Amino acid sequence: MNALAAVGEALVLIGTFFYFLSALGLIRMPDVYNRMQTATKSATLGSLGVIVGVGIWALGTDFGSAAWLTKTIVIAVFLLLTNPISAHALIRAAYKSGIPLWEGSVMDKYREHMEAKAKAAEAPEVETPEETPKEGGEE
Amino acid sequence: MIGINIYLALIAIATLLSMYRVFRGPTTVDRLVAVDIMTTITAGLMVLFALYYQRMIFLDVALVYAILAFGGVIAFARYMEGGL
């Protein structure tokens, strides 16, 4: 076993351990928002470790070539870009469909933002001093 | 190549734990989150299979599987939101 195979195997071990931690967080966390938080981050890190680790590991074997590392890096970058997007869409759907937060939650920034926006849309003529044109514009 | 059995066992345990959340989950979005994690784990598992069987074609299978799973999760999220 040469050095490349050892480095790749260590990366794969770290990645599978993060897979295990992500599934454990899926069991242990109290509500769907916390579950999505722990599951997305550690599953993304775990798949990065496993996939890039397999690419480096294959370079150290007798059948591997540089195409293995290229293809695995393509898959890893794709997963790194699309996992946050799917997590965002799922959590937005959960919030819009009315799933309540855990009773121990202390902060709801999205509701505060929506309330502030609704209040601003309700009374627009009270506080819009910037829309009055400055006298003597371009003449 | 001996250690790959340990990694496959860890991935199997992770899949079983998220399968528990799929069957148990109180709401629909809980089940969707668990299925999303299972698809991510399955993409990594296919890459490991490519090394185990020494076939590079499994890497293409993993890439296509990741793309299709992403599209499916986005479609389900839009459906839950009421936009589809």
Please, could you describe this protein's structure?
The complex is a heterodimer of chains A (139) and B (84). Chain A is mainly alpha-helical. Chain A has one domain. Chain A is built from four helices and no strands. Chain A is elongated, with a radius of gyration of 24 Å. The model of chain A has no long low-confidence stretch (mean pLDDT 85). Chain B has 84 residues and is mainly alpha-helical. Chain B has one domain: Helix Hairpins. In chain B, 86% of the residues lie in helices and 0% in strands. Chain B is built from three helices and no strands. The longest helix of chain B is centred in the middle third of the chain and has 26 residues, at 28-53. Chain B is flat. Chains A and B meet through helix 1, helix 2 and helix 3 of A and helix 1, helix 2 and helix 3 of B.
Features:
heterodimer, A: 139 residues, mainly alpha, elongated, B: 84 residues, Helix Hairpins, 86% helix, 0% strand, flat, sodium:proton antiporter activity (chain A), transmembrane (chain A), membrane (chain A)
Major sheet details of chain A: none
Which class best fits the helix and strand makeup of chain A?
Answer: mainly alpha
Biggest sheet layout of chain B: none
Name the biggest interface: A-B, 49 and 47 residues
Describe this structure in a few short sentences.
Chain B: GO terms for molecular function: sodium:proton antiporter activity. Chain B: It is a multi-pass membrane protein. The complex is a heterodimer of chains A (139) and B (84). Chain A has 139 residues and is mainly alpha-helical.
List strands and helices in order, with pairings:
The complex is a heterodimer of chains A (139) and B (84).
Chain A: H1 3-28, H2 32-59, H3 66-96, H4 109-122
Chain B: H1 4-24, H2 28-53, H3 57-81
Helix pairs in contact in B: 1-2, 2-3
